[in-house]
Amino acid sequence: MAAEKMSLSKAINASLRTALETDPKVLIMGEDVGKLGGVFRVTDGLQKDFGEDRVIDTPLAESGIVGTAIGLALRGYRPVVEIQFDGFVFPAYDQIVTQLAKMHARSLGKVKLPVVVRIPYGGGIGAVEHHSESPEALFAHVAGLKVVSPTNASDAYWMLQQAIDSDDPVIYFEPKRRYHDKSEVDTAAIPGPLHAARVVRPGADLTLAAYGPMVKVALDAAAAAAEEGKSIEVLDLRSMSPIDFDSIQRSVERTGRLVVVHEAPVFLGTGSEIAARITERCFYHLQAPVLRVGGFHSPYPPSRLEDEYLPGLDRVLDAVDRALAY
Question: pTM for the full model?
Answer without folding.
Answer: 0.96
